[in-house]
Amino acid sequence: MKAIIIAAGLGSRLEHYTDERPKCMVDIGGRSILSYQLEAFAKNDIDDIHIVRGYLADKLVVDGATYHENSDYQSNNILLSLFCAASAMDGPFVSTYSDIVYTPQVVEQAVHSPHDIALVVDRQWHLAYEGREDHPPEQAELAEVDGERVLRVGKQVGPENAVGEFIGLARYTAEGARQLREVYADVRAKYGDDEPFQAAAKFRKAYLTDLFCELIDRGVDVGWVPIDGGWREIDTVEDLHRVRDEWAG
């Protein structure tokens, strides 16, 4: 199976830690953030690695990986960045944000989901926000569900409606990949870069969660994989210090 790692962004909220390296190459416990992801993939027989690069692309090198360049990384966002690797979406794959760490067990649960499109959602999400000052809960991509189906997902979903937080890891079967590609191609043809799309003020600034909401609006079933911890996001310097203490300690 393939993995597509979205790793083009500047990582500016990590301040000087990303002056000379991409965000996913920042050190946690003597290892890069990316190395934790690669280990989790390897333990689940995911060995066809595709990386979307942008900022300091020459510093992001993984043996055997296939690279996809996002030359407009300073002006676009996660959704357009992911689709720089559209050529790799010709079968089952997982997609992941590059600034998160997770255990192999989290990936295992995602891989074995029965859904064609499956979002990994942490039901214990609120625990990670205790004492987290620089990344408030309002910035969490929360998920509202009905049974096994996701109803809405994104920063616009309030805590009162949420079952948990989408961690940035998703799995697609070949059919799910086809649905993802087809809906993206349709909206890409209809929306200009500066037109609103779902919760995004401009299409070029859209998140992956905006496309998930579009799929749901069109009647495509989007499922979820419940987890209870086993992952962490590294978005700010505060996050980095906490994860170094709690995850790699």
Description:
By secondary structure, the chain is α/β, with parallel strands linked by helices. The chain has a single domain, classed as Alpha-Beta Complex (Spore Coat Polysaccharide Biosynthesis Protein SpsA, Chain A). The protein is 24% helix and 25% strand. The protein has 6 helices and 13 strands. The chain has helices at residues 33-42, 78-82, 104-111, 174-190, 208-217, 237-246, and strands at 2-7, 27-28, 31-32, 48-53, 66-69, 93-97, 100-102, 117-122, 142-146, 149-154, 164-172, 223-227, 231-233. Strands 1, 4, 5, 6, 8, 9, 10, 11 and 12 form a 9-stranded mixed sheet that branches. A hairpin with a 2-residue loop joins strand 2 (27-28) and strand 3 (31-32). It is globular. The protein starts with a strand and ends with a helix. The mean pLDDT is 96.
Question: What kind of sheet is the major sheet?
Answer: 9 strands, mixed
Cα separation of the termini: 31 Å
By secondary-structure content and strand pairing, the structural class works out as alpha/beta
Query: Number of domains in the coordinates?
Result: 1
Summed up, what is this model?
Helix content is 24%, strand content 25%. It has helices at residues 33-42, 78-82, 104-111, 174-190, 208-217, 237-246, and strands at 2-7, 27-28, 31-32, 48-53, 66-69, 93-97, 100-102, 117-122, 142-146, 149-154, 164-172, 223-227, 231-233. Helix 1 packs across helix 3 and helix 4 (174-190) packs across helix 5 (208-217).
